[in-house]
Amino acid sequence: MTEKQAPTGAAITLEACGKTFADGTRALEPVNLAITPGETIVLLGPSGCGKTTTLRIIAGLESPDRGGRVLFDGQDVTELPIEKRNVGMVFQSYALFPNMSVIENVAYGLRVRGVAKAERLARAREVLEMMRIDQLADRRIDQLSGGQRQRVALARALAVRPRVILLDEPLTALDAALREHLRAEIDGLLRRLAITAIYVTHDQAEALALGDRIVVMRHGAIAQIGSPRDIYFRPADEFVASFVGVTNRIEGAVRNGVFESAAGRVLLTGGDRDTATLAFRPETAELCAPAEGALRLRVDQVHFQGARQRVQLSAPDGSRIIIEAAAETELSLGQDVGVRLDPSRIAVV
Ligand SMILES: Nc1ncnc2c1ncn2[C@@H]1O[C@H](COP(=O)(O)OP(=O)(O)OP(=O)(O)O)[C@@H](O)[C@H]1O
Protein backbone atom coordinates (compact mmCIF):
# COMPACT_ATOMS: atom_id res chain seq x y z
CA MET A 1 0.00 0.00 0.00
CA THR A 2 1.22 3.49 -0.84
CA GLU A 3 0.22 6.54 1.17
CA LYS A 4 -2.81 8.47 0.08
CA GLN A 5 -2.63 12.11 -0.97
CA ALA A 6 -4.57 14.85 0.80
CA PRO A 7 -8.18 13.67 0.47
CA THR A 8 -10.51 15.05 -2.17
CA GLY A 9 -13.34 12.64 -1.38
CA ALA A 10 -16.41 13.16 0.77
CA ALA A 11 -16.90 12.09 4.37
CA ILE A 12 -19.88 9.75 4.47
CA THR A 13 -22.03 9.05 7.48
CA LEU A 14 -24.83 6.53 7.81
CA GLU A 15 -27.10 7.16 10.77
CA ALA A 16 -29.45 4.34 11.76
CA CYS A 17 -29.88 3.22 8.14
CA GLY A 18 -32.09 0.15 8.10
CA LYS A 19 -33.95 -1.34 5.15
CA THR A 20 -37.15 -3.34 4.99
CA PHE A 21 -38.28 -4.12 1.46
CA ALA A 22 -41.92 -3.95 0.32
CA ASP A 23 -42.30 -7.74 0.62
CA GLY A 24 -41.25 -7.54 4.29
CA THR A 25 -37.64 -8.72 3.80
CA ARG A 26 -35.49 -7.13 6.48
CA ALA A 27 -32.29 -6.60 4.49
CA LEU A 28 -30.57 -4.24 6.91
CA GLU A 29 -30.83 -3.56 10.64
CA PRO A 30 -30.29 0.13 11.49
CA VAL A 31 -26.59 0.59 10.75
CA ASN A 32 -24.27 3.41 11.86
CA LEU A 33 -21.09 3.98 9.89
CA ALA A 34 -18.68 6.91 9.60
CA ILE A 35 -16.33 6.91 6.61
CA THR A 36 -13.54 9.49 6.50
CA PRO A 37 -12.61 11.44 3.34
CA GLY A 38 -10.34 9.44 1.04
CA GLU A 39 -10.82 6.21 2.93
CA THR A 40 -11.31 2.85 1.19
CA ILE A 41 -13.96 0.92 3.08
CA VAL A 42 -14.68 -2.70 2.17
CA LEU A 43 -18.06 -4.24 2.96
CA LEU A 44 -17.38 -7.95 3.40
CA GLY A 45 -19.77 -10.76 4.16
CA PRO A 46 -21.60 -13.80 2.83
CA SER A 47 -24.32 -13.66 0.19
CA GLY A 48 -27.46 -11.88 1.36
CA CYS A 49 -25.94 -10.12 4.37
CA GLY A 50 -26.91 -6.64 3.14
CA LYS A 51 -23.73 -5.36 1.45
CA THR A 52 -25.36 -4.28 -1.80
CA THR A 53 -28.32 -2.77 0.02
CA THR A 54 -25.92 -0.62 2.09
CA LEU A 55 -24.13 0.46 -1.08
CA ARG A 56 -27.41 1.32 -2.84
CA ILE A 57 -28.51 3.43 0.12
CA ILE A 58 -25.24 5.39 -0.09
CA ALA A 59 -25.66 5.75 -3.86
CA GLY A 60 -29.24 7.01 -3.57
CA LEU A 61 -30.70 4.03 -5.46
CA GLU A 62 -32.56 2.91 -2.34
CA SER A 63 -33.89 4.98 0.55
CA PRO A 64 -33.36 3.85 4.14
CA ASP A 65 -36.33 3.10 6.39
CA ARG A 66 -37.80 6.05 8.26
CA GLY A 67 -35.34 7.50 10.77
CA GLY A 68 -32.27 6.63 8.70
CA ARG A 69 -30.06 9.43 7.37
CA VAL A 70 -27.21 9.59 4.86
CA LEU A 71 -24.76 12.49 5.14
CA PHE A 72 -22.08 13.58 2.63
CA ASP A 73 -19.64 16.01 4.26
CA GLY A 74 -22.21 16.65 6.97
CA GLN A 75 -24.94 17.55 4.47
CA ASP A 76 -28.11 15.43 4.61
CA VAL A 77 -28.48 13.78 1.18
CA THR A 78 -31.11 11.20 2.21
CA GLU A 79 -33.70 12.69 -0.14
CA LEU A 80 -31.30 13.39 -3.02
CA PRO A 81 -31.47 11.06 -6.04
CA ILE A 82 -28.29 9.41 -7.36
CA GLU A 83 -27.63 11.98 -10.07
CA LYS A 84 -27.44 14.77 -7.48
CA ARG A 85 -24.98 12.96 -5.19
CA ASN A 86 -21.91 12.98 -7.44
CA VAL A 87 -21.09 9.30 -6.97
CA GLY A 88 -19.38 6.95 -9.41
CA MET A 89 -20.50 3.33 -9.59
CA VAL A 90 -18.88 0.17 -10.91
CA PHE A 91 -20.76 -3.13 -10.95
CA GLN A 92 -19.81 -6.75 -11.44
CA SER A 93 -21.51 -6.75 -14.84
CA TYR A 94 -19.96 -3.98 -16.84
CA ALA A 95 -23.20 -2.11 -17.71
CA LEU A 96 -21.42 -0.39 -20.60
CA PHE A 97 -23.21 0.68 -23.78
CA PRO A 98 -22.21 -1.98 -26.32
CA ASN A 99 -22.96 0.15 -29.39
CA MET A 100 -20.78 3.08 -28.27
CA SER A 101 -17.00 3.33 -28.47
CA VAL A 102 -14.84 3.22 -25.36
CA ILE A 103 -14.34 6.98 -25.28
CA GLU A 104 -18.06 7.65 -25.80
CA ASN A 105 -18.82 5.35 -22.88
CA VAL A 106 -16.32 7.12 -20.65
CA ALA A 107 -17.64 10.55 -21.70
CA TYR A 108 -21.27 9.53 -21.23
CA GLY A 109 -21.65 10.76 -17.65
CA LEU A 110 -20.25 14.13 -18.68
CA ARG A 111 -22.70 14.34 -21.58
CA VAL A 112 -25.59 13.73 -19.17
CA ARG A 113 -24.21 16.56 -17.03
CA GLY A 114 -24.23 18.90 -20.03
CA VAL A 115 -20.45 19.23 -20.47
CA ALA A 116 -19.62 20.48 -24.00
CA LYS A 117 -18.39 17.86 -26.48
CA ALA A 118 -14.76 19.01 -26.84
CA GLU A 119 -14.29 19.20 -23.09
CA ARG A 120 -15.94 15.88 -22.33
CA LEU A 121 -13.82 14.07 -24.91
CA ALA A 122 -10.67 15.71 -23.54
CA ARG A 123 -11.56 14.70 -20.00
CA ALA A 124 -12.47 11.17 -21.05
CA ARG A 125 -9.13 10.83 -22.83
CA GLU A 126 -7.34 12.08 -19.74
CA VAL A 127 -8.92 9.32 -17.62
CA LEU A 128 -8.14 6.70 -20.29
CA GLU A 129 -4.51 7.83 -20.27
CA MET A 130 -4.38 7.72 -16.49
CA MET A 131 -5.57 4.11 -16.67
CA ARG A 132 -3.25 3.37 -19.59
CA ILE A 133 -6.04 2.27 -21.93
CA ASP A 134 -6.05 5.30 -24.25
CA GLN A 135 -5.07 3.01 -27.14
CA LEU A 136 -8.54 1.44 -26.84
CA ALA A 137 -10.44 4.76 -27.14
CA ASP A 138 -12.07 4.05 -30.51
CA ARG A 139 -12.84 0.35 -30.03
CA ARG A 140 -16.37 -0.90 -29.57
CA ILE A 141 -17.17 -2.53 -26.21
CA ASP A 142 -17.79 -5.94 -27.80
CA GLN A 143 -14.20 -5.85 -29.11
CA LEU A 144 -12.77 -5.78 -25.57
CA SER A 145 -11.70 -8.49 -23.12
CA GLY A 146 -13.37 -8.78 -19.71
CA GLY A 147 -10.49 -7.06 -17.97
CA GLN A 148 -10.49 -4.21 -20.49
CA ARG A 149 -14.25 -3.75 -20.09
CA GLN A 150 -13.89 -3.48 -16.35
CA ARG A 151 -11.15 -0.87 -16.78
CA VAL A 152 -13.49 1.10 -19.05
CA ALA A 153 -16.28 0.83 -16.47
CA LEU A 154 -13.90 2.19 -13.84
CA ALA A 155 -12.77 4.99 -16.17
CA ARG A 156 -16.39 5.91 -16.83
CA ALA A 157 -17.11 6.10 -13.10
CA LEU A 158 -14.02 8.28 -12.49
CA ALA A 159 -14.57 10.63 -15.45
CA VAL A 160 -17.24 12.62 -13.62
CA ARG A 161 -14.75 13.24 -10.78
CA PRO A 162 -17.06 11.82 -8.14
CA ARG A 163 -16.72 12.54 -4.43
CA VAL A 164 -17.18 8.87 -3.75
CA ILE A 165 -16.83 5.76 -5.85
CA LEU A 166 -18.96 2.70 -5.14
CA LEU A 167 -17.72 -0.65 -6.39
CA ASP A 168 -19.97 -3.72 -6.19
CA GLU A 169 -17.94 -6.91 -6.71
CA PRO A 170 -16.19 -5.33 -9.72
CA LEU A 171 -13.75 -8.22 -10.18
CA THR A 172 -15.99 -11.23 -9.65
CA ALA A 173 -16.48 -11.95 -13.36
CA LEU A 174 -12.74 -12.06 -14.07
CA ASP A 175 -10.32 -14.98 -13.84
CA ALA A 176 -8.03 -15.28 -10.81
CA ALA A 177 -4.80 -13.90 -12.30
CA LEU A 178 -6.52 -10.91 -13.87
CA ARG A 179 -8.47 -10.28 -10.70
CA GLU A 180 -5.30 -9.95 -8.67
CA HIS A 181 -3.69 -7.69 -11.27
CA LEU A 182 -6.68 -5.37 -11.53
CA ARG A 183 -7.12 -5.34 -7.76
CA ALA A 184 -3.59 -3.95 -7.38
CA GLU A 185 -4.34 -1.38 -10.08
CA ILE A 186 -7.57 -0.27 -8.41
CA ASP A 187 -5.75 0.00 -5.10
CA GLY A 188 -3.06 2.23 -6.63
CA LEU A 189 -5.65 4.37 -8.42
CA LEU A 190 -7.86 4.93 -5.37
CA ARG A 191 -4.84 5.94 -3.34
CA ARG A 192 -3.47 8.26 -6.00
CA LEU A 193 -6.82 10.00 -6.42
CA ALA A 194 -7.55 10.02 -2.67
CA ILE A 195 -11.18 9.45 -3.49
CA THR A 196 -13.54 7.97 -0.89
CA ALA A 197 -14.28 4.42 -1.98
CA ILE A 198 -16.75 1.80 -0.81
CA TYR A 199 -16.03 -1.64 -2.15
CA VAL A 200 -18.38 -4.60 -1.80
CA THR A 201 -17.00 -8.13 -1.93
CA HIS A 202 -17.45 -11.57 -0.44
CA ASP A 203 -13.80 -12.36 -1.16
CA GLN A 204 -11.74 -11.99 2.00
CA ALA A 205 -8.39 -11.80 0.19
CA GLU A 206 -9.69 -8.84 -1.82
CA ALA A 207 -10.97 -7.19 1.36
CA LEU A 208 -7.70 -7.62 3.25
CA ALA A 209 -5.65 -6.30 0.33
CA LEU A 210 -7.77 -3.23 -0.48
CA GLY A 211 -9.42 -1.95 2.65
CA ASP A 212 -8.18 0.80 4.93
CA ARG A 213 -10.96 -0.59 7.08
CA ILE A 214 -13.20 -3.59 6.63
CA VAL A 215 -16.83 -3.78 7.68
CA VAL A 216 -17.73 -7.43 8.20
CA MET A 217 -21.49 -7.91 7.82
CA ARG A 218 -23.79 -10.69 8.86
CA HIS A 219 -27.61 -10.97 8.64
CA GLY A 220 -28.02 -7.26 7.83
CA ALA A 221 -25.89 -6.07 10.74
CA ILE A 222 -22.26 -5.09 11.29
CA ALA A 223 -20.30 -7.90 12.96
CA GLN A 224 -17.02 -5.95 13.19
CA ILE A 225 -15.36 -2.81 11.83
CA GLY A 226 -11.59 -2.65 11.87
CA SER A 227 -8.32 -2.51 9.96
CA PRO A 228 -7.44 -5.64 7.95
CA ARG A 229 -5.01 -6.62 10.72
CA ASP A 230 -7.65 -6.17 13.42
CA ILE A 231 -10.12 -8.28 11.52
CA TYR A 232 -7.59 -10.99 10.75
CA PHE A 233 -5.69 -11.25 14.03
CA ARG A 234 -8.30 -9.96 16.48
CA PRO A 235 -11.65 -11.16 15.14
CA ALA A 236 -14.54 -10.06 17.37
CA ASP A 237 -16.27 -13.44 17.33
CA GLU A 238 -16.40 -16.93 15.83
CA PHE A 239 -18.28 -15.73 12.75
CA VAL A 240 -15.65 -13.15 11.79
CA ALA A 241 -12.83 -15.59 12.57
CA SER A 242 -14.25 -18.28 10.33
CA PHE A 243 -15.32 -15.94 7.53
CA VAL A 244 -11.96 -14.19 7.25
CA GLY A 245 -9.57 -16.97 6.34
CA VAL A 246 -8.95 -20.43 7.68
CA THR A 247 -8.86 -20.81 11.43
CA ASN A 248 -7.91 -24.06 13.06
CA ARG A 249 -9.85 -25.09 16.12
CA ILE A 250 -9.05 -27.77 18.63
CA GLU A 251 -11.54 -28.67 21.37
CA GLY A 252 -10.19 -29.39 24.82
CA ALA A 253 -10.00 -28.16 28.40
CA VAL A 254 -7.65 -25.94 30.37
CA ARG A 255 -6.25 -27.47 33.59
CA ASN A 256 -3.47 -25.93 35.70
CA GLY A 257 -2.72 -23.48 32.91
CA VAL A 258 -2.31 -26.20 30.30
CA PHE A 259 -4.65 -26.70 27.34
CA GLU A 260 -5.25 -30.44 27.02
CA SER A 261 -6.74 -32.16 23.99
CA ALA A 262 -6.53 -35.33 21.95
CA ALA A 263 -4.03 -33.53 19.71
CA GLY A 264 -1.66 -32.58 22.50
CA ARG A 265 -0.91 -30.10 25.29
CA VAL A 266 -0.21 -26.36 25.07
CA LEU A 267 1.06 -24.19 27.90
CA LEU A 268 -1.11 -21.09 28.37
CA THR A 269 -1.16 -17.97 30.51
CA GLY A 270 -4.96 -17.76 31.05
CA GLY A 271 -7.20 -19.30 33.73
CA ASP A 272 -8.59 -22.86 33.84
CA ARG A 273 -11.77 -23.88 31.98
CA ASP A 274 -13.63 -27.17 31.63
CA THR A 275 -14.18 -26.68 27.94
CA ALA A 276 -12.04 -24.51 25.71
CA THR A 277 -11.28 -24.12 22.02
CA LEU A 278 -7.77 -23.36 20.92
CA ALA A 279 -7.76 -21.29 17.70
CA PHE A 280 -4.86 -20.42 15.37
CA ARG A 281 -4.19 -19.51 11.74
CA PRO A 282 -2.48 -22.01 9.39
CA GLU A 283 0.57 -19.79 8.81
CA THR A 284 1.29 -19.27 12.52
CA ALA A 285 2.09 -22.95 13.19
CA GLU A 286 5.28 -24.78 12.32
CA LEU A 287 5.99 -28.43 11.49
CA CYS A 288 8.58 -30.26 13.57
CA ALA A 289 9.53 -33.76 14.70
CA PRO A 290 6.66 -35.57 16.51
CA ALA A 291 8.38 -35.45 19.90
CA GLU A 292 9.20 -31.74 19.67
CA GLY A 293 5.77 -30.21 19.00
CA ALA A 294 2.99 -29.20 21.33
CA LEU A 295 0.59 -31.10 19.06
CA ARG A 296 1.10 -34.50 17.51
CA LEU A 297 -0.85 -35.13 14.32
CA ARG A 298 -1.03 -37.28 11.19
CA VAL A 299 -0.58 -36.05 7.61
CA ASP A 300 -3.81 -36.56 5.59
CA GLN A 301 -3.32 -34.39 2.52
CA VAL A 302 -0.62 -32.22 0.98
CA HIS A 303 -1.33 -29.47 -1.57
CA PHE A 304 1.78 -28.18 -3.27
CA GLN A 305 1.39 -24.44 -4.01
CA GLY A 306 4.78 -23.48 -5.39
CA ALA A 307 6.71 -21.63 -2.70
CA ARG A 308 4.62 -23.18 0.09
CA GLN A 309 2.55 -26.27 0.66
CA ARG A 310 -0.73 -26.50 2.49
CA VAL A 311 -0.91 -29.55 4.71
CA GLN A 312 -4.04 -31.10 6.16
CA LEU A 313 -3.46 -32.94 9.43
CA SER A 314 -5.73 -34.89 11.72
CA ALA A 315 -5.81 -35.53 15.45
CA PRO A 316 -6.73 -38.89 17.05
CA ASP A 317 -10.25 -37.53 17.79
CA GLY A 318 -10.74 -36.78 14.09
CA SER A 319 -10.37 -33.01 14.25
CA ARG A 320 -8.70 -31.49 11.21
CA ILE A 321 -5.92 -28.92 11.21
CA ILE A 322 -4.55 -26.99 8.23
CA ILE A 323 -1.05 -25.59 8.33
CA GLU A 324 1.37 -24.10 5.83
CA ALA A 325 4.90 -25.40 5.46
CA ALA A 326 7.93 -24.62 3.32
CA ALA A 327 7.75 -26.45 0.00
CA GLU A 328 11.10 -28.19 0.64
CA THR A 329 9.76 -30.15 3.64
CA GLU A 330 9.10 -33.66 2.32
CA LEU A 331 5.98 -35.25 3.74
CA SER A 332 4.26 -38.54 3.14
CA LEU A 333 0.61 -39.34 3.75
CA GLY A 334 -0.03 -41.10 7.05
CA GLN A 335 3.21 -39.80 8.58
CA ASP A 336 3.22 -38.55 12.20
CA VAL A 337 4.40 -34.97 12.66
CA GLY A 338 4.72 -32.47 15.48
CA VAL A 339 3.27 -28.96 15.32
CA ARG A 340 4.83 -26.04 17.19
CA LEU A 341 2.58 -23.10 18.03
CA ASP A 342 3.53 -19.47 18.53
CA PRO A 343 2.10 -18.64 21.99
CA SER A 344 1.54 -14.98 21.01
CA ARG A 345 -0.63 -15.98 18.05
CA ILE A 346 -3.02 -18.49 19.55
CA ALA A 347 -6.39 -17.62 21.01
CA VAL A 348 -8.42 -19.59 23.53
CA VAL A 349 -12.16 -19.04 23.08
N1 LIG B 1 -35.71 -5.43 -3.91
C1 LIG B 1 -35.71 -6.35 -2.96
N2 LIG B 1 -36.87 -6.86 -2.46
C2 LIG B 1 -36.87 -7.79 -1.47
N3 LIG B 1 -35.75 -8.29 -0.92
C3 LIG B 1 -34.57 -7.85 -1.36
C4 LIG B 1 -34.48 -6.85 -2.41
N4 LIG B 1 -33.16 -6.61 -2.64
C5 LIG B 1 -32.48 -7.40 -1.79
N5 LIG B 1 -33.31 -8.14 -1.02
C6 LIG B 1 -32.93 -9.09 0.05
O1 LIG B 1 -32.23 -8.37 1.05
C7 LIG B 1 -31.18 -9.16 1.59
C8 LIG B 1 -29.84 -8.45 1.44
O2 LIG B 1 -29.54 -8.36 0.08
P1 LIG B 1 -28.19 -7.70 -0.47
O3 LIG B 1 -28.28 -7.70 -1.97
O4 LIG B 1 -27.96 -6.42 0.20
O5 LIG B 1 -27.11 -8.76 0.02
P2 LIG B 1 -25.58 -8.90 -0.38
O6 LIG B 1 -24.85 -9.02 0.90
O7 LIG B 1 -25.17 -7.81 -1.29
O8 LIG B 1 -25.56 -10.30 -1.12
P3 LIG B 1 -24.75 -10.81 -2.43
O9 LIG B 1 -23.32 -10.97 -2.00
O10 LIG B 1 -25.40 -12.11 -2.74
O11 LIG B 1 -24.94 -9.76 -3.49
C9 LIG B 1 -31.26 -10.49 0.88
O12 LIG B 1 -31.99 -11.38 1.68
C10 LIG B 1 -32.00 -10.17 -0.40
O13 LIG B 1 -32.69 -11.29 -0.88
TrEMBL record:
Keywords: ATP-binding, Nucleotide-binding, Transport
Identification of the protein by name: Putative ABC transporter
SMART domains assigned to the protein according to its UniProt record, in alphabetical order: AAA
Matching PROSITE patterns: ABC_TRANSPORTER_1, ABC_TRANSPORTER_2
Family: Belongs to the ABC transporter superfamily.
InterPro entries: AAA+_ATPase, ABC_SmlMolc_Importer, ABC_transporter-like_ATP-bd, ABC_transporter-like_CS, Mo/tungstate-bd_C_term_dom, P-loop_NTPase, Transp-assoc_OB_typ2
A matching Pfam family: ABC_tran
Transmembrane segments: none
Gene Ontology CC terms, in alphabetical order: ATP-binding cassette (ABC) transporter complex
Topology in membrane: Peripheral membrane protein
SUPFAM superfamilies: MOP-like (SSF50331), P-loop containing nucleoside triphosphate hydrolases (SSF52540)
Recorded superkingdom: Bacteria
Main location: membrane
Keyword Ribonucleoprotein: no
Subcellular location: Cell inner membrane
GO molecular function, one term: ATP binding
Ranges of residues in domain ABC transporter: 12-244
